Amino acid sequence: MRDLKPNLTPSSAPTVAAPGGAGMGGAMMTDDPSVAQFAAYLEHERNASPHTVANYLMDIAQFVRFTWTGDAMPPYDWEAVDRFKARSFLIEFQKSGSVATTTSRKLSALRSFYRFMEREGLARLNPFNGLKPPKRARKLPPFLSQKEIIQLLDMPMLLWKQVERPKSDRERTLAEYCALRDAAMLEVLYSTGGRISEITGLTEPQVDLLSGMVRVRGKGRKERLCALGRQACKALKASITLRDALWPELARRRAVDRALFLNNRGNRITSRSVERLLKKYLAAANLNPSISPHALRHSFATHMLDAGADLRSVQELLGHASLSTTQIYTHVTVEKLKKVYDDAHPRA
What we know:
Layout: E1 8-9, E2 15-16, H1 33-45, H2 50-67, H3 83-95, H4 100-119, H5 146-162, H6 169-192, H7 196-200, E3 207-208, E4 213-217, E5 223-227, H8 230-246, H9 271-284, H10 294-306, H11 311-318, H12 323-326, H13 328-344
Helix pairs in contact: 1-2, 2-4, 5-6, 6-8, 6-10, 10-13
């Protein structure tokens, strides 16, 4: 496999040492008139930064090294490059282990270079036109195992039992409410698979504890129904009871103005506060404290699919407009199956 890394020589005018054999070692990329014109166009007409120009020239230099070997010297025969050679260059990068974003950048740079040459009458065809960049790998979302979820959900009340009780009745009630509220919020996040903004934005009329349903307002102000599990309903009831005891004036407000979760000053709790509280409980449970509240949503979807829920149902519960967005969780479950297979199968 050829070495595709040319020597990049920084200077006030962007120049790149030409890659290739012995006859090309001292030549500069801007010795090629087409490349020199393209560099001037980027610098003066496109107002590209020196770093951007250098990257473009580096990509062109790598293509030169791949295409011409031996004693080839500038000016290069850009017309001789066909679609097959252009495609082979991109494939070589993929084979060498380059990430999709790197290969895509090189495609973009060389397509722009040839497009420039077409406009200036320096080339008749663009061999990079119509070539598609490699698909970027979708990162698997972080999620917690069922055991880790239980550890996390139990943590607010465990910590409440361990801390020293405040002396005044009001302070004791407020501290207990905060523990019950946090337990309820985590239960609702995991039970519904809701986004943190959807859960902190809940008001009383959106929740029906008798039927175990909650009406969530998601992106684009679209509403969807989500189910509340028994544990989530139980935690919510306890939280609401103590909330009303602490702030009886809430009863005088309109139902739509009564936030479900309040901070210790009686105002709606913010998403930022929930993130800070989650980090505290993750650390106390010896779990990764960098995990965000969105990981509970990922965990909800992954555990539902692991238990046999169909993809369409999970899509509806998550409020995804496209099924393809939900399909990322099937990759998570496949990865889990592969790990189980590798760990358990004697011939894996």
